[in-house]
Design brief:
Layout: H1 12-19, E1 24-27, H2 35-39, E2 46-49, H3 59-64, E3 68-70, H4 77-92, H5 95-103, E4 127-131, H6 135-146, E5 150-154, E6 164-166, H7 169-175, E7 178-181, H8 195-200, E8 206-209, H9 218-226, E9 232-235, E10 255-257, H10 266-284
Parallel strand pairs: 1-2, 2-3, 4-5, 4-7, 5-6, 7-8, 8-9, 9-10
The structure holds (2R)-2,3-dihydroxypropanoic acid (DGY).
(2R)-2,3-dihydroxypropanoic acid binds at residues 29, 51-53, 76, 262-263.
Length: 295
């Protein structure tokens, strides 16, 4: 058994070397399992990922080779919905900007409370558009109900959820004060929120993304945010992670950025680890994985 203990991410070349001769792999969402890695390992039987998303794995190539792929659904739903709402509130009320202001020593008598001082955007009573009404999207909707928000949602296969109005995606973008992205990244959702769709949003709207960076065109988002065509964004995920320090989004004061911590509570990470380990152990015993994406 080969175990990567860090420090940091396992580089692709290291994964290639460590996997040689292994029948199974327990990996994280930071490990790229592409077709060439799968091809280079004819003995590989299963991949258990400690994540619900499996966009880091070429599932098509794995399935074609008969490799079973497991994930960790369900256990991170509420934690990730909390993170979506935390980003929504932080971006709406400019919390990070205000925190930097205080710590930076700028809160002085000549620069203090005034009627327009750090004014943000009301959440209570506003319209929230949820893009992707899966388990996390529905958990975000439940939180929104507590804030008296009107909730619109778009899902690729329409879903009937009480208290949520199903609408077309373009209509949702045009009508929402807040937009929360809660869907998986795949061929059909890559760049779903592109320049044209961002332009449909209200100028004072806030975009929140805790799912995958590749769903939003980041350059178009940075342009919209820096030209007052969008009020703010709360982003936990980026197309490339770790996000490069000089990324255009990171220079904008109206962006709240976090390092893919949507599911990062101790309890949830333990549940995810247990599920991934169980998937691995069952596969090792030759049994079906309890949570398999390509049965
Ligand atoms: C996942 O499991 O796919 C999440 O992105 C982790 O936060």
């Amino acid at each position: 058994m080969n175990i990567w203990m860090g420090p940091g991410l396992l580089p692709a070349a290291g994964l290639h070397d460590e996997l040689a001769g292994c029948e199974g792999l327990l990996c994280l969402l930071t490990d790229r399992i592409d077709a060439s890695l799968i091809e280079a390992n004819p003995q590989l039987r299963f991949i258990a990922s400690m994540s619900v998303g499996v966009d880091h794995i070429d599932v098509k190539a794995a399935t074609a080779r008969g490799i079973v792929v497991g994930n960790t659904p369900g256990v991170l739903v509420e934690t990730t919905a909390d993170a979506s709402f935390a980003l929504l509130l932080a971006a709406a009320r400019r919390l990070v900007e205000a925190d930097r202001f205080v710590r930076g020593g700028h809160w002085r008598v000549e620069n203090a409370w005034s009627p327009e001082f750090f004014t943000g955007k009301d959440v209570a009573g506003a319209t929230l558009g949820i893009v992707g009404l899966g388990e996390v999207g529905q958990a975000v909707a439940r939180r929104a109900a507590g804030f008296g928000m009107k909730v619109l949602a778009w899902n690729r296969t329409p879903r009937n959820v009480p208290g949520v109005e199903a609408v077309e995606l373009d209509e949702l973008l045009a009508a929402s004060d807040f937009v929360s992205i809660n869907l998986a990244l795949g061929e059909e959702t890559r760049n779903l929120i592109d320049e044209r769709r961002l332009a449909l949003m209200k100028r004072d709207a806030v975009l929140v993304n805790t799912s995958r960076g590749g769903i939003v065109d980041e350059q178009a988002l940075a342009d919209a945010l820096s030209h007052d065509r969008l009020a703010a964004a709360g982003l936990d995920v980026f197309e490339r992670e770790p996000v490069p320090e000089d990324h255009p989004l990171l220079s904008l004061p109206n962006v709240v950025a976090t390092p893919h911590i949507g599911s990062a509570t101790e309890a949830t990470r333990i549940k995810m680890a247990d599920m991934a380990a169980l998937n691995m152990l069952e596969a090792l015993r030759g049994e079906p994985m309890p949570h398999c994406v390509n049965p």
